[in-house]
Amino acid sequence: MNIFEEKKIKVADAVLALDLDGTLTNSKKQVTENTKAAIAGFIEAGGTVVLASGRPTFGVMPVAKILELDKKGGYILSYNGGCFLDCKNNEQLFMKELTHEYLPILEKQANEFGINLMTYNGDKAYALDIDEQYYMLEITINHFIRVKANPLTPQITFPIIKCLMTADGNYLAKVEKEMKKYWEGKLNIVRSEPYFLEVTEVGINKASTLTGMVKKLGKSVDNLICCGDGFNDLSMIKAAGIGVAMSNAQDKVREAADYITKSNDEDGIVNVIEKLFEWEK
Fold first, then answer.
1. pTM confidence score
2. Which is nearest to 19 in space by CA: 66, 55, 61, 69?
3. Is residue 159 over pLDDT 90?
4. What is the C-alpha separation between 25 and 264, in angstroms, rounded?
5. Among 3.90.600.10, 3.30.40.230, 2.30.40.10, 3.30.1240.10, what is the CATH number of 100-201?
């Protein structure tokens, strides 16, 4: 007996939270037609979809439109939990800003570590180094306008929800340890990809925002199915009624999951939705 037969969550009661990169989208950053059709069937049967990403809201919107969540209904959790949006009404249901006074310290640390630092405002991505390869990857994925801000702090006069530090993964793992030690109790520091270090306000992660919003929507956390592949998906996978790891997920993510589905290049999300429907037949 697999976890879906054991839990027996009705599709109409289910909340399906989907990470984007490495989970919902394939290696080409595309949502396949099979996955799109499966999600459409899930929504038609009464299921609730949440796109749960470390991406800024601007970067998640195109995927939400591909899935027609603006018409069919659904939600966006962006900035790694810093924001929660109702797609149908375009209503922001939750937002937690990053304390602005922390930004000069973060910039100083980025310079000391010799790594890049960036933040966002609408369709713009502000960074110390706009030619750095991992910054370029981030703006390519999300279609941001490049804005050089070095020094960064004087140009950031708008509210911010998340900062992102970027560097080679092996080096960033060492930086992560130092950052967690320094910011304990003040900021949440987690890697979404080996080369992306996410910085949000303390207590903000995918799990905290998801579980809180699921309850506000009148749903049960027991009926929450969370699918992901990266380190920043760990919190929601552990908090879910059913935690799902993609077969391409990081080792720690697979170890924490209740179920391992196919990879993002094998329509792994389709497999999850099929499992939900199976026992109801």
1. 0.94
2. 55
3. yes
4. 6
5. 3.30.1240.10
